[in-house]
Amino acid sequence: xxxxxxxxxxxxALAAAxxxxxxxxxxxHDNPKPGGAQTVVRILRPLPLAPAPAGTVTxxxxxxxx
Length: 66
Description:
Blueprint lengths: L1 H29 L36
């Protein structure tokens, strides 16, 4: 008779530990710390490019005769 009583007490202790663990977990979940992280996503659109300046480039090369 000692064997079944010991198993019943052990099962009751495990059930009580499980219930206490669930209660503590729920209480911590119900009261989260304020000021958590917040993510903000912004889309930046590129500015239009200015048109390339119109014009010509003249290169003058002078050579000296030997």
